[in-house]
Structure formats: structure tokens, C-alpha cells
Amino acid sequence: MPLRNLAIIFLTLALAAACRLGMPTGRYARVLGESIDVIESLSLTKIGARQLFEGAMSGMTDKLDEYSAYLPPEDAKELIDELDAKFVGVGVYLSVDPQTKELVVTRPQPDSPAFAAGIRAGDMLERIAGKSAQGMSMDDASALLRGKPGEAVEVVIKRKGVEKPIVLSLVRAEIHIDSVYGLSRSADGSRNFMLPGIDGFAYVRIDNFAEGTVEELKNALKRIAAEKAKGLILDLRDNPGGLLPAACDVCKLFVSKGTIVSTRDRNGDVWDTIEVNGKNGGAPYPELPLVVLVNRLSASASEIVAACLQDDGRAVIVGERSFGKGTVQHVIELGDDLGVLKITAASYWRPSGKNIHRRPDAKESDEWGVTPDPGCGVSVNEEDMDKLRQQWVESEAGTVKTEAKEKKPPADRVLEKALEVLKKKGRSS
Which among 326, 363, 366, 317 is positioned nearest to 348, based on CA atoms? Predict the structure, then answer.
């Protein structure tokens, strides 16, 4: 089917709801399709209909919010790979410094090319594949860092305390991302979930919510239960979110009934409510004392879990106020290898009926995100957080010296506060 016709058909369907509200959308779809024909035939710069179609789709979504986007086929595949927790790349988590707009390595993935090359949390990307990374979006950076297995990509990084930029050639490889971590690994490679030097308390960090998250967490909880843990710290710091069903299934491990989350449209009308119905015997861990850790990078699905457990009274929240990314993206496959349309269609609301999403003009005093329980707020500066992220990576990769593992948990004021809360819960129960 010609792209001109496809544009008209797709836009007519996509804007049907607006038509019902009396908006004259039909002529816009027709003019857009005709414009593709005119530009393709008359433009001094030769350009194909497909490029024009992709440009038009990108232009429309650019007028929406920061999470809506048109993804061409290659980017659509990356999205699917991320949700499946596997992709080909170098293995780095990135963030954008809000002041300098520099791309910062949140942390490297253990057993990845980036980790093997010595990339650390806090490193700043200066160039990727010969292109300046200043002002580059995370999506564009990811596209440059990914590719085919065995292909090399050159990166130039800046590191605090190092005068000259560091030039590295990273060979892309298939990266498998686990979701559930402990604080360290044993000699046989198994994860340790019981906190060393502290009798009876367990620690689990969920890095993202993907297809395998719930099964990984169930396996960890079985081991924790076998060790007769007196309490659990569930760490959702730096967790950017992921699959909503995975987040809801995590809640169902601890909550036996009630609302997990609801979604509302732009008019505030409830679209859907996800609940725990109490069937099949209810939650397997309804009474295990629980503390959840969040920080300013805990977003989306991680906020849904934290908010559900807090509103239910099931867990105490410790750390910093979360990011406030409470929007629902609908992913629409366009077919015929034309990519996908990712549209923000609704927002997440807590069981208490409070809003999770932080709007661009939101103030600190407004209602959004997940705030720690009274007396449980603990701020961490970025330098200390980078050190902790590096500790996570080294512990997971098994590169921390044995004697350091056997002492006490790494210096972590948020974790220390969580332990304090758990011990009080144990004494009061």
C-alpha cells in the first residue's frame, strides 16, 4: 500500500476519538498524505516517501510529551529487546545531568564490555563513535552504542580527577540483564541475599521490571524464607521501571487484597483498576516485615510498587522522593515493517487516589511520586551515590575483596536507616 494512503488511513483511525469530539481531523489527514506526494515529487532535495512518513510521525509525537515517540523499525526492536531484558551493546546505564546536559554513566552492567574496559559510575561520555555526546539524548546515545555482536565502537569519557579524556574501544556483545540482585555473590556464583554481619535480615535489589523479574524474585524469597529472615529490605533505587504486569505481580507477593494501581485519562476519568483479588490463597509473604528503598531515579513501575506497599501499610518507604513518572504508554505496531507508535494515553494513580505523575510545571509542594514515610527521608549526594553504584557493580561481578565482603554492608546511610526501621518493627511485633 502506498505510504500516502497508509498515512491517511492511520491518521484517520488514530484521530477517530478526536472526531467524536467535533474536531475537523479528516482534512488534516488528507492534506498530510497529499503533502507527502508533493514534497517527494517537487523537492530539490531528493527524498523518499518512507523518509517523509517517518519525519511526519516524529514531528507529530514531538508535539506531545517527552515519553511519546514514533520509533522506526530498528528502534522498535531495541524497545522490545529491553523489555525482554536482552540486547546487543556495551552494557551501560545512562542518565542526563540536568545542569550540564552531559551523558553520565549511572553504572556499567556486570560482565559487559563496558565493565571489562573499566568504565565506572560517574564517568561522562564526551564522544561516541566520533560524534560529540554533548546534549545528545539517551535514545540517540543508545542507538550509537548498540549494533552487531563483535563490532567495535569507540567512546571517549571524562572522569573526575583524571586530567585527560580516556579513549576506549568497546566490542559490542549480547547483554543479558538480570532483574534481581543481592549485595554480593558467593564463590560458586550464587547471590547472597542475607545481609552479612547482621543476623536475620535480607536484602534484595530489583534493577528493572522485565519478563523474568517475578520468577527471579520468587526464587530469592524462597531462599530468604529458608534462612528464616526476620525482615526484608527491597531496594528500588535507580529502578527506571519496565513492565506493568511484572510490577503488579511483585505487589501480589506481599499484598493479599485491595487496589494496586488505577489509570486515568486526561479528563481524570478512571480507565482501569488493577486489584489483588485474594484468590489462590492470597500473597505468599503477607507478614514478612518489609522496608522499600527509593530515590530520585526510582520511576514508573518501581513507583507503582512502592506506592502500593506504602498505601496498604505493608511497607515503610525509606530514602528520597521518587522521580514522578506515572504515565501509561500504549505501543501501537504499525505493521508492514513501519515501526511502532508509543503514545502516552493515561496516568497512574495510587490506591489512595493520589497522583504519581509529575507534570513539567509541578512544584515540590504538589502531589506526585512516592515520598518516604515520616522520619525516613535520607538524602544522598551524587558523588556518594556514584560510589554506591560502583559498589553494586563490583559486588555483583565478584571483584570486591573477600575480606571486605565479610565485614559489614558498604557505607550506605539509606540502608542503615532501613535496618533501623526493620529492627524497630521486629521489636514492636
Answer: 326
Top pLDDT among 50 and 409 is at 50
Q: For residue 351, how many other CB atoms are within 10 A of its CB?
A: 22
Provide the edge-to-edge strand list for the sheet that holds 180-181: 180-181, 201-206, 231-235, 290-294, 316-319
d(CA 217, CA 208): 12
Residue 206 is given by DSSP the state: E
Q: Is 140 a catalytic residue?
A: no
Q: How far is it, in rounded angstroms, from Cα 302 to Cα 306?
A: 6
- DSSP assigned state of 190: P
Does the active-site annotation cover 252? no
Active-site residue, 311 included: yes
Place of cell 551523558: 103
One-letter identity of residue 349: W
Side-chain-side CA neighbours of residue 25 (13 Å): 17
Q: What is the CA radius of gyration of the chain?
A: 24
Phi and psi torsions of 245, nearest 5°? -60, -35
Averaged pLDDT, 229-258:
94
Catalytic residue among 123, 179, 235, 325: 325
- Which of 155, 112, 152, 148 has the alpha carbon at shortest distance from 133? 155
- pLDDT band, residue 404 (cuts 50/70/90): very low
**For residues 36 and 56, what is the distance between their CA atoms, to the nearest angstrom?**
9
Positive or negative: CA dihedral 354, 205, 425, 412: negative
Q: Which of 300, 302, 322, 347 is catalytic?
A: 300
Q: Which residue carries 551524587 as its cell?
A: 382
Instruction: List, in sequence order, every residue forming a beta bridge with 86; answer none if it has no partner.
Output: 176
Per the CB < 8 A criterion, the answer to whether 25 and 15 are in contact is yes
Q: Provide the pLDDT confidence category of residue 378 given band limits of 50, 70 and 90.
A: very high
Look up residue 3 and give its three cell numbers: 505510504
Biggest CA-to-CA distance, the chain: 78
List the catalytic residue out of 235, 311, 312, 386. 311
Tens digit of each residue's pLDDT (9 = 90 or more) over 120-170: 888 999 999 999 998 888 778 888 998 888 999 999 999 988 989 999 999
Share the mean pLDDT of the chain.
84
Q: At 241, which amino acid appears?
A: G
Residues 6+ apart with CB under 8 A from 311: 350, 351, 352
Q: Is 36 exposed, middle or buried (0-12, 13-18, 19+ CB in 10 A)?
A: buried
Contacts of 16 (CB under 8 A, 6+ apart): none
Query: Which among 352, 216, 349, 378 is positioned nearest to 291, based on CA atoms?
Result: 378
